[in-house]
Specification:
Layout lengths: L2 H33 L24 E4 L12 H5 L10 E6 L8 H14 L4 E6 L6 H8 L3 E6 L8 H8 L4 E6 L5 H17 L3 E3 L2 H4 L2 H6 L14 H28 L24 E8 L3 E8 L6 H15 L6 E7 L3 E2 L17 E6 L2 E5 L8 H12 L11 E5 L1 E7 L1
Parallel strand pairs: 1-2, 1-6, 2-5, 3-4, 3-5
Antiparallel strand pairs: 7-8, 7-9, 9-14, 10-13, 11-12, 11-13
Helix pairs in contact: 9-10
């Protein structure tokens, strides 16, 4: 073959290679955007975390703490003494003491009076568990506005859509009546207020000692300020966020999972349109699903780990994978959403089981092999646990545990039995 011919073939081969690569890239991206299934920036384990630009000025939450035992500079009075130095002009939400006493009545009245003077409030909604109580007279005295009282208990479904519609309007003020020291009765109201604050990216004004932590608060979880000193590790925090995520989107996740599971193999997958209502379904996350046949026999399990996929994308893909395998009729399934993996720094002489809490799953890696077990399927005894890990990951018996990398994680679950 002539040298010029070889050069031409080489040139055309290179051009053909790059053409095919470009075509595949265009096809892959077209497929992603056609189905609108690209993952969000947000992670499901950070559900509720404020990620908006820190420089954007947002309306203010005035989270007002009050306890009889607190010293003067930590009470509502001490807080209000600094109110006029940097008074927010557009407050949208507050948490005030549900119980009005002789000690806090004047302080709450001053708070209402000062907000009415500084902001143009045309409508007030008070949410509590006793129809407003003495707050009714204080609000009517200090606000020349339409006032609605919403009696709400923990057993009822929180009217999130109604609240969102209310606070989206200009001139509205939402007030939660909750006593922070009465955890049993009012903690759920505080949690709902914190959730709304996170959802709408409000900044928060609390006591002087935490004002200096505002910048950190925007990157951390608001809820950590309301834990009353209880220590919560990172995996527990992520698990709590995942549970909140499922509380709001679990029904939609199951709906798209079952639709794709019932779809005949060969048909195109069913994807949700990415709308404001379904946008968070595409938050990034790790999904693990177990499929069962009659007699509760597990026939297939698969996880999407380290793929950086949206939750709903992993859910749909795993459903279609189960259909394609056609092992046995699927009568039940269990869906797990995983926290991030936390590496276990295991001492050579310590049993692995000592590093695991009761709700910890385990993930192991050895060279190119890996295995995963959720908390409810892992053995509770060391010898059985290591045997199960080796069997599932196909790790030979002569491989020492020191050569394996172990990770723990927590899960929240959804399950269904037909």
């Amino acid at each position: 073959m002539l040298q010029t011919t070889r050069r031409k073939l080489k040139k055309w081969s290179i051009c053909l290679f790059w053409f095919i690569a470009a075509a595949l890239m265009v096809w892959a991206n077209y497929n992603r955007f056609y189905h609108n299934n690209y993952a969000n920036y947000e992670k499901a384990v950070d559900y509720g975390r404020v990620r908006e630009d820190k420089e954007v000025i947002r309306p203010v939450i005035a989270a007002v703490f009050y306890q009889n035992e607190q010293t003067k500079n930590k009470t509502l009075s001490g807080y209000l003494s600094h109110w006029n130095t940097n008074q927010p002009k557009n407050p949208k939400m507050m948490i005030v003491p549900q119980t009005i006493t002789a000690l806090n009545r004047g302080d709450v009245q001053k708070l209402y009076h000062d907000i009415n003077q500084s902001a143009n409030v045309s409508a007030v909604m008070f949410i509590g568990n006793d129809s407003g109580g003495e707050h009714k007279s204080l609000l009517k005295k200090n606000f020349k506005a339409e006032i609605e009282f919403l009696n709400f208990s923990e057993k009822e479904v929180f009217p999130e859509n109604k609240i969102d519609e209310f606070i989206s309007q200009g001139g509205t003020l939402l007030i939660f009546g909750a006593d922070f020291y009465d955890e049993d009765n009012d903690k759920f109201l505080i949690d709902e207020a914190v959730y709304l604050a996170q959802k709408h990216a409000y900044k928060v004004r609390v006591f002087d000692e935490v004002d200096t932590q505002l910048a950190q608060a925007l990157e951390d979880n608001y809820a950590s300020w309301f834990e009353n000193g209880n220590e919560v590790n990172e995996l527990q925090r992520q698990k709590k966020n995942l549970q909140e995520y499922l509380n709001h989107y679990g029904h939609d996740i199951l709906q798209y999972f079952t639709m794709n599971l019932e779809l005949v193999d060969g048909n195109d997958a069913i994807w949700p349109d990415k709308t404001p209502e379904t946008y968070r379904l595409f938050d990034r996350g790790t999904v693990y699903i177990r499929f069962f046949s009659s007699g509760n026999k597990e026939v297939f399990s698969r996880a999407k780990i380290g793929k950086n996929k949206g939750i709903i994308v992993a859910i749909v893909e795993l459903a279609r994978k189960a259909v394609a395998k056609k092992i046995q009729p699927i009568t039940a399934y269990k869906i797990y959403l995983l926290t991030e993996l936390e590496k276990i720094e295991k001492d050579i002489n310590s049993p692995l089981i000592n590093y695991l809490e009761t709700d910890d799953g385990i993930y192991v890696q050895y060279k190119g092999r890996s295995a995963l077990m959720a908390a409810d399927e892992r053995p509770k005894e060391e010898t059985a646990l290591m045997a199960a890990i080796r069997g599932r990951a196909k790790i030979p018996e002569d491989v020492a545990a020191t050569q394996m990398d172990f990770y723990r994680f927590k899960t929240v679950e959804m399950e269904n039995e037909d």
